[in-house]
Amino acid sequence: MIKYLGSKRLLAGRIVEIARALPGVRTVLDPFSGSARIGHALKRAGFRVVASDHNAYAATLARCYVQADREEVARDAERLLRELGGLRGSPGYFTETYCIQSRFFHPKNGERIDAIREAIAKKGLPPELEAVVLTSLMEAADRVDSTVGLQMAYLKQWAPRALGDLELRMPDVLPRARYGKGEAHRADVLEMAACVEADLAYLDPPYNQHSYLSNYHVWETLVLWDKPDVYGRARKRIDCKTRKSPFNARATIHQALHALVSTVRARFLLVSFSDEGFVSRAELESLLQSRGHVYVFAHPWKRYVGAQIGIYNPRGEKVGRVGRRYNTEYLFLVSPIRLDAALASFGPSRDAAPSAPRRGVDRVTV
After folding, report:
1. Residue 140 shares a structural domain with residue 279
2. Residue 324 reports pLDDT greater than 70
3. DSSP codes, 14-73
4. Distance linking the first and last C-alpha atoms of the chain
5. What is the three-class DSSP state of 79?
6. 223 and 140 in one domain?
7. How far is residue 222's CA from residue 114's CA, in Å, rounded to a whole number?
8. What CATH number is given to the structural domain containing 303?
9. Under 8 Å CB-to-CB from 71, ≥6 apart: which residues?
């Protein structure tokens, strides 16, 4: 799968473990599906997943990894990928924008991306098959990019992988889940929360100012293939200036979270958040208590790559020191019933926080 800031890949096992421990859970709503890693892991575990995201590239990843079933698409997808993988490069919008005006990809790979994407656009494929093929193209491009994982900037010198050859591979499309066929949507989160009834809602909202559309604008353009006007050194889509999420602003995130928690139609909630977010742990616990008992799982988490390599000015000179290299990722489990017995095997026992915990809040340090 693609490199993705905010991906909960390392927490996927714990999230699946929690879902399995909850009584009666068969359908899981994932309305911030992002890279689709968690939806994919839940589907592999047998759950029926309903995934959604407001970005087109993320909805496409979910359509591949959550909605599409291997037994229905694999044969046609493998044939198409062999055909598309044999196309010669043909420079176009993608090459000019992301290889010449900027340096996200080497021109030899940009030309092949142009040719393959134009061919896909002309085929008029069924949505699930198209999603599998587009996911293969995104992942192939991701393996030969020249970034540190975000599309806010690119490296001054070509990354060694950028000089390799683009290769289409069949994505890890799973068979249909035990509890039924999944769904993938491109929709507003509150719309999904209001119209989908699930046993468990996994909520992983943006928690600070970093916009996923701006961070992965190249994938958005590759999927939509709308060849938009662009701006800045990173050649971002012009709609990066206008397509804003209320979860990305300190002034609006509290209201957005309150609306989401109040609206979502699920018996259990599992909320992923960070101590680097605009909302504090105490504030989030207080909000979630309106839905039931709250259990908190804390996980040490290595910070984004910028915090590892340091702070540099435009001339490449190191000019600052990073404050910390790790933060804490939280999973807040909300249940209408006590779950002490069900969670008894989850690592260390629950201990009170340094300050007296609120009624209804249990803490687990993992």
Report:
1. no
2. no
3. HHHHHHHHSTT--EEEESS-TTSHHHHHHHHTT-EEEEEESSHHHHHHHIIIII--HHHH
4. 26
5. helix
6. yes
7. 9
8. 3.40.50.150
9. 175, 176
156 shares a domain with 303: no
pTM recorded for the entire structure: 0.88
Q: Work out the burial of residue 365: count CB atoms within 10 Å of its CB; fewer than 13 is exposed, 13-18 middle, 19 or more buried.
A: middle
Per-residue confidence at 322, pLDDT binned at 50, 70, 90? low
What is the bridge-based pairing of β-strands 230-231 and 318-320?
unpaired
In the chain, the percentage of residues whose pLDDT exceeds 70 is: 86
Number of residues assigned to the chain: 366
1-24 pLDDT, tens digit each: 777 666 677 889 999 999 999 999
CA distances from 102 to 3, 107, 172, 272, 290 (A): 19, 10, 31, 34, 48
Residue 86 per-residue DSSP state: T
Total number of domains constituting the chain: 2
If asked whether residues 315 and 338 sit together in one domain, one would say yes
Structure-token pair, residue 259? 């609306």
Token pair for 27: 């359908």
Nearest to 171 by CA among 37, 12, 32: 37
Amino acid at residue number 174: L
The residue segments making up the domain with residue 256 are: 1-69+175-204+249-366
Which amino acid is present at 166?
A: L
HSE, side-chain direction, 13 A CA sphere, residue 142: 17
Q: Which of 194, 221, 245 is the last residue of a domain?
A: 245
